[in-house]
Amino acid sequence: MSEPSSTDTSLDTPPSEEGLLESLEHMDAAERAEHDAAVSASVAPERDFSVAKGETLLAVDGLTVRFGGLTALDDVSFDVRRGEILGLIGPNGAGKTTCFNIMTGVYRPTSGDILLEGRSLARMKRYKIIQTGVARTFQNIRLFGAMTALENVVVGTDARHRTSVPGALLRLPRHRREEREAVEKAMALLEFVGIADRAADKATALPYGYQRRLEIARALATEPKLLCLDEPAAGFSASEKDALSELILKIRDDGYTVVIVEHDMRVVLGVTDRLVVLDFGRKIADGIPDEVRRDPAVVAAYLGGDLDEESAP
Amino acid sequence: MRERMAGVSHWWNAKSRPAQWGYMVPVVLFLLALPVLNPPIITTEPYTDFPISLFNAAVFALIAIGLNVVIGQAGLLDLGYVGFFAIGAYTAALLSSPDSELGVRYPWLVIVPIAMVVTMVSGVILGTPTLRLRGDYLAIVTLGFGEIVRLLADNVDPLRGNRGFQNIARPGGDFPDGTPIFSQTDALGFYWLAVMIIVIVLLFMGNLERSRVGRAWIAVREDEDAAELSGVPTYRFKIWAFAIGAAVGGLSGTLFAAQVGYVNNQRFDITTSTLYLAAVVLGGQGNKVGVILGAFLVSYIPDRFQFEPTYRFLIFGVALIVLMIFRPQGLLGMRQHLLANGRQAYQKLFGAGAAVAPSGLTPSSKARGDLPETVPDDHAGTSPRGGGE
Ligand SMILES: Nc1ncnc2c1ncn2[C@@H]1O[C@H](COP(=O)(O)OP(=O)(O)OP(=O)(O)O)[C@@H](O)[C@H]1O
Ligand SMILES: [Mg+2]
């Protein structure tokens, strides 16, 4: 008898990659531009913001988080402005992921608050926080392994769906419309992040870089106002990092606001508009990258050197 | 052999859903004709009346389909599912038996929706507190639920314990020759009814699976925290899984009670729950056809080979162990289609005839690294350990 684990994923004929790729190749420049514009348009959702571009979208206000005796975040305050890419950096264990965990409701702050457009997220249910407009990726990839890439992204679009269980049971018109739109949107997102050629593959069967991009697509599918990326370039080669930086800039240009946690300084300095630096749970610097790099406290925290572009692996 | 199966499933997946149902028609017709054909070798006679054996297998299959929603799709280990079957059967008894203190004699067709609502509500009542728990705790609480239902049947006077209820309502109607279609002695009509009910339930389950509901269930099963942090109201959809699973369990309870015509406290113990679970695991959790096959085997094999009841569990135990060693995903592996128009989408992408989503069992992801092993419960509104309070 066959050993169990290898059974299915590889069984069915792998989908030929020709369809989409070829159709893209055979487009002339004008068609191509039109196609890209259409993808972009369906990736960038229409949302009602109550704050203008450049104003405070997310306010982190005196945030303190304690785990027993350990203070993971200590009275941290900073703002994220609408339309910017903010880098949240710091040495290992500085509290960056904890900050994301508070922003998405995984933990509740010991004291302090986080406000999205003035609404407190500190006591909101997790899925409500997502619906309010914060989406994230994970430092360690957490996809739905038994789903295809496309299905993973459609789960993200469901955050905006209003079909009820009876509506799905009876296939009522709203359900059918939402399903149709969700698949189109999810396809556009997969194309946007550059992995549409593997849309039909199980998430676990995707190469590592694809999985990271798929997480971004799934997060974008929830139509967030704020996108939080936790070490999106971890484990990437130099060229993959460049491609990722490009993608992050493209996401911003589509009207998203991004907070990125990343150790790779080339990526950080390449995309961020501002930096917030944490060390042992405390904020030690906040400002535009060029200033922050020279800040003595930051240099000390990184034991010199590390912040240089050249030293990045 | 494996390539062959892959070929079959590939061929099958390339068909449109209406075409698949088209192919199902002869299969269903064959199943309906089976008790009339009474083929040698396959038949369970002379040990067990063949139509009755088939009817019992069909009820078992219906139960497995309902339990599969809870265990196979949403990944919630429910060890007390027999409780819902019992509630369905007792609802039918109380609403139609002359022994019932309620003193009503509703027809079966009226009883069915009432019983489904009653079991659904009991599913919600069981789920509301317990679905905040995860994993092992849930299994233990549901095990307790099954036992509570059984103990109520034993000890609450109006439920008549061992004496039970006679003359439970059955659907009406006569064959042209004047004999009733639905009778206790000839299970043919009941078997046909059960098969039709299974077809209808499968149709609805397919609709749910290919919607945000099915996706939410699978997402919860794969990684509950990631699901919630992707905007899935996990708690609400877990309750729906319980409620829908319960309703199907209740439906099978009424079907069973109507055929036997008699309900007492003898049939609703933990071993029965275990057999349900065995059917789902054996056939392949998360695969509707698989669990039907599993249920059929668990119900049919003892009838066919007529071995000692005591050996029954021994044999299934051994079979399950062997299966878990060589094919832990069950006879048919997990398989799901989660998009209402996924076929068109994949075909548009990869051209007609291209494979639709490959499917299969993948180890579900575990909590790792950046998220705590268990995310503190949202609904409890906890703050970090030691903090705040
Ligand atoms: N659930 C928890 N219980 C106890 N301590 C925790 C918990 N989560 C995080 N911590 C601690 O809080 C501190 C901050 O952790 P965090 O994961 O936020 O760091 P980070 O800045 O993301 O680091 P890295 O760059 O390594 O990802 C660490 O000392 C960590 O051990
Ligand atoms: Mg981290």
TrEMBL record, chain A:
Species name: Actinomycetospora chibensis
GO molecular function terms noted in the UniProt entry: ATP binding
Biased amino acid composition, Low complexity: 1-22
One Pfam family linked to the record: ABC_tran
Listed SUPFAM superfamilies: P-loop containing nucleoside triphosphate hydrolases
Xref: InterPro entries: AAA+_ATPase (IPR003593), ABC_AA/LPS_Transport (IPR051120), ABC_transporter-like_ATP-bd (IPR003439), BCA_ABC_TP_C (IPR032823), P-loop_NTPase (IPR027417)
Annotated segments matching region Disordered: 1-25
ABC transporter domain: residues covered: 58-305
Record field: transmembrane: none
Record carries keyword Lyase: no
PANTHER family recorded: AMINO ACID ABC TRANSPORTER ATP-BINDING PROTEIN, CONSERVED COMPONENT OF ABC TRANSPORTER FOR NATURAL AMINO ACIDS-RELATED
Protein name: ABC transporter ATP-binding protein
Family matches, as PROSITE patterns: ABC_TRANSPORTER_2 (PS50893)
Xref: CDD domains: ABC_Mj1267_LivG_branched (cd03219)
UniProtKB/TrEMBL annotation, chain B:
Originating species: Actinomycetospora chibensis
Annotated keywords: Cell membrane, Membrane, Transmembrane, Transmembrane helix
InterPro entries: ABC_transp_permease, LivM-like
Cited CDD domains: TM_PBP1_LivM_like (cd06581)
Mode of membrane association: Multi-pass membrane protein
Protein name: Branched-chain amino acid ABC transporter permease
Membrane-crossing residue ranges in chain numbering: 21-38, 50-71, 78-96, 108-128, 189-208, 239-263, 275-298, 310-326
Main location: membrane
Cell membrane found in the keyword field: yes
Ranges of compositional bias, category Basic and acidic residues: 367-380
Subcellular compartments: Cell membrane
